Amino acid sequence: MAAPASAYKDRQFLAVIGDEHVTAPPDSQKNFLVVDSKTDNAAIEEAFERFTSERKDIGILLINQHAIDTYTAAFPALLEIPSKDHPYDPEKDSVLRRVRRLFGE
Amino acid sequence: MSPTATSATLSEEIDQLLEHYLSLLDQYTTLRSQLSSIQSSLFQNISRANFSAERGVRYGADFYDARMQATRVCHVTVPATDLPTTDVLAPQENVVEGKTLDGVQRGTTAEAGSLKEKERQNNPSTIATAAGTACFAIGAVINSRPSTKTEHAAADKGDANIAKGGKDPLHMFGFLTPSALREAQRDSVKTVVEVLPRIASVDAEMKEVEIRIRRARKWKARAETKEGNLTEKSISTGHRVEVEV
């Protein structure tokens, strides 16, 4: 079923949670979080919550590849992208996990 | 597809959905490999820029400041028709004043339709999207959405200004940036404009098809149970008839 236009029409920004090489420019407030070894999990979770639930102007959220299985919302779209230190791993790709589940593996 | 269809019809529909799903999966894996190759080039270029940088200079988070502004924005569309539609998600390459700039071809006019057809011919990997599935596209920041030729031209002009340096985020790193850093910027733009919105769109469509497949499987199981009950009934009725004879 098609989502109502109000659910996506104002979503015009990309948000990023990732290392320093994977960032995006903000508009009025920051739409990125640079994660390094000193960043604690609470800060990452808070940023994730802010980009996915609070802000209604985020269209796509880019995040360095981690296992996120519980996120099912249509907007913002969540994309896991590889980082410099962690190359793409199909085993951890949530889309390919869904494919395996569909085919009963 | 309806819940009252026979199991044979539903099997056929499930097969068709699976075929479509596998083609989407193929597109997804292709886009993922494209993303990996662009990103490896991006990281190499950043490393090269840092290697050749002056002593003490490191092109990284230290240079980010309040000047940062969005130079690309996301467009989300959800086609409402039941017929599968083809929305152009791959950006159209606009050449302005000798520079290749990124723009997004959109619109529903007849002119846009013919452009879409051309794009489809030029780009075999154009994604066909189903109704109710979100399409993501990334374009340059413009004040109004372009719908006519003039507005498209205006949008291109706006894009040219960004590339000319008005809002070029690379200037945060100084005016004489190394060529490797400019290459890295080109790779980043390519990732954001060409690959990521297409991955997001394919992912959204895959989710939609998964729901349809699961629903069809459920209906098929129900239909099979119903048909099985009917066969059992007819067998038992036939047995009784035999006994009676």
Characteristic terms for this protein:
heterodimer; A: 105 residues; alpha/beta; Rossmann fold; four-stranded parallel sheet; B: 245 residues; mainly alpha; two-stranded antiparallel ribbon; 4 helices; Vacuolar ATPase assembly protein VMA22 (chain B)
What secondary-structure arrangement, pairings included, does this model have?
The complex is a heterodimer of chains A (105) and B (245).
Chain A: E1 13-18, E2 32-34, H1 41-54, E3 58-64, E4 77-81, H2 94-102
Chain B: H1 7-52, E1 72-77, E2 85-86, E3 92-96, E4 99-103, H2 110-122, E5 128-129, E6 135-140, H3 149-164, H4 179-244
Antiparallel strand pairs in B: 1-6, 2-5, 3-4
Helix pairs in contact in B: 1-4
What does this structure look like?
Chain A: Pfam families: ATP-synt_F. Chain A: This is V-type proton ATPase subunit F. Chain A: InterPro entries: ATPase_V1-cplx_f_g_su (IPR008218), ATPase_V1-cplx_fsu_euk (IPR005772), ATPase_V1_fsu_sf (IPR036906). Chain A: Belongs to the V-ATPase F subunit family. Chain A: Its main location: membrane. The complex is a heterodimer of chains A (105) and B (245). With 105 residues, chain A is of the alpha/beta class. Chain A has one domain: Rossmann fold (3-Layer(aba) Sandwich). In chain A, 22% of the residues lie in helices and 20% in strands. Chain A has helices spanning 41-54, 94-102, and strands at residues 13-18, 32-34, 58-64, 77-81. Chain A starts with 12 loop residues before the first strand and ends with a helix. Chain B is mainly alpha-helical and 245 residues long. Chain B has one domain. Chain B contains four helices and six strands; from the N terminus they run αββββαββαα. Chain B has helices at residues 7-52, 110-122, 149-164, 179-244; strands at residues 72-77, 85-86, 92-96, 99-103, 128-129, 135-140. In chain B, strands 1-6 form a two-stranded antiparallel sheet. In chain B, strands 2-5 form a two-stranded antiparallel sheet. Chain B has a two-stranded antiparallel ribbon with strand order 3-4. In chain B, helix 1 (7-52) packs antiparallel against helix 4. Chain B is elongated, with a radius of gyration of 26 Å. The two termini of chain B are 44 Å apart. The chains are: A alpha/beta (105), B mainly alpha (245). At the A-B interface, strand 3, strand 4 and helix 2 of A face helix 1, strand 1 and helix 4 of B.
